[in-house]
Write a structure and sequence with these properties.
0% strand; 65% helix; mainly alpha; globular; 103 residues
Length: 103
């Protein structure tokens, strides 16, 4: 399990630079077994979210997806926009939800 607190996760509407900084605090390639596994996880999660609106339930999977999106858009040379930004924001919301104290 990640050692991340809800206070460390920016709000979904934060500047992308702040979101990218958070993404890079979790090297999913090292934590989850390499590029191929993370790429498959992240691409499947992205496609599922676009089709159904659902995301992985585990914080480490969400962090891996956020990390991969940061790397993807770094490779593209531009921050995410439109639906891609909506997806990144949904990942942040889901991360925050997983860390909310139970009542």
């Amino acid at each position: 399990m990640s050692d991340l607190s809800i206070d460390e996760i920016p709000e979904p509407d934060a500047d992308y630079e702040v979101i990218a900084e958070l993404a890079l605090t979790y090297n999913a390639y090292e934590q989850m077994g390499g590029f191929a596994y993370v790429a498959q996880l992240a691409n499947e999660a992205s496609h599922t979210w676009r089709a159904t609106g659902s995301l992985p339930k585990h914080l480490d999977a969400l962090r891996a997806c956020l990390f991969f999106e940061q790397r993807r858009h770094r490779h593209f040379g531009d921050p995410p926009e439109g639906e891609a930004l909506d997806y990144v924001q949904a990942l942040l919301s889901a991360m925050r939800d997983t860390l909310k104290p139970e009542r």
